Amino acid sequence: MGDPSNVGVKLFASLREAVGAREVTVSLPTGSTAGQLLEALAAAHPEVARQRDALSLAVDHVIRGPEFVIAPGAEVALLPPVGGG
Amino acid sequence: MPGPTQIELVEGPIDIAAVYAALTHPTCGAVNLFVGTTRDHHDERPVEELSYEAYGPMATRELTRLAEETRARFPDVVGVALVHRLGRVPVTEASVVAGVSSAHRGVAFEASQWVMDALKARVPIWKKETYRDGGAPQWVANKEALSPTKEPRS
């Protein structure tokens, strides 16, 4: 694990409105996993904690599980259950 | 040799005739278009309109993957079109068109059903309902929506 760096996380729809921002920033050691990022976000934002079990994490436009290591500069987004169609 | 593919996220009305035209092909005897439209009620509540938001780059990527997967699952498919409207969609207007063309109609019916179900499960687009009963607008998830607690994605 390296030095802390800031990771921007995009938010959408119900989550964007509940948190009140299109993007939030979280400080994480380099080499952190998707699970650790979600943990940090949930600690900082009660709405993320509340909806957590329903949220998917996308890294560079692909849904990733909790063990996935987030590379520096990756595009990260937190997605509520979809409603298209 | 795959036929035409049309993947699009659009603001404003979907040009359904253009989607149909893009799917026609000399080898095809069938073009099946599913058109999803805004209805004026959800359960017992009167709906004023729907509004759609997308994670654009990822939605386009997922729609492209769905078109590829449709061809892999249904090798007789020729053309695939997946077009979703974003922003406000008034009652009776189209929010989504899922179209498939093929030599014979059976495959076109089956493939468009499959791709539409898959679209509702995993493409990152969200829907907000506005009501005519004075209640607060609500984001409504699809019952098909995948989540971390359901089956993992491929």
Structure description:
The complex is a heterodimer of chains A (85) and B (154). Chain A is an alpha+beta fold. Helices cover 28% and strands 31% of the residues of chain A. Chain A has helices at 13-19, 34-44, 46-51, and strands at residues 4-11, 23-29, 56-59, 62-64, 76-79. In chain A, a hairpin with a 2-residue loop joins strand 3 and strand 4. Chain A is globular and about 40 Å long. The model of chain A has no long low-confidence stretch (mean pLDDT 95). Chain B has 154 residues and is an alpha+beta fold. Chain B has helices at 16-23, 56-73, 105-122, and strands at 5-11, 30-37, 41-42, 45-54, 77-90, 94-102, 125-131, 138-140. Chains A and B meet through helix 1 of A and strand 4, helix 2, helix 3 and strand 7 of B.
Protein topology:
The complex is a heterodimer of chains A (85) and B (154).
Chain A: E1 4-11, H1 13-19, E2 23-29, H2 34-44, H3 46-51, E3 56-59, E4 62-64, E5 76-79
Parallel strand pairs in A: 1-5
Antiparallel strand pairs in A: 1-2, 3-4, 3-5
Chain B: E1 5-11, H1 16-23, E2 30-37, E3 41-42, E4 45-54, H2 56-73, E5 77-90, E6 94-102, H3 105-122, E7 125-131, E8 138-140
Parallel strand pairs in B: 1-5
Antiparallel strand pairs in B: 2-6, 3-4, 4-5, 4-7, 5-6, 7-8
Helix pairs in contact in B: 2-3
Structure described in brief:
Chain A has three helices and five strands.
- How many structural units, i.e. domains of chain A? 1
Which regions of chain A have little confidence, pLDDT < 50, spanning 5+ residues? none
Most residues in contact: chain pair: A-B, 21 and 34 residues
Domain module count of chain B: 1
Order of helices and strands of chain B: EHEEEHEEHEE
Structural shape of chain B: globular
Q: What percent of the residues of chain B sit in helical stretches (DSSP H or I)?
A: 25-40%
Shape of chain A: globular
Task: Summarize the biggest pleated sheet of chain B.
Answer: 8 strands, mixed
How far is it from the N-terminal to the C-terminal residue of chain A, by CA? 41 Å
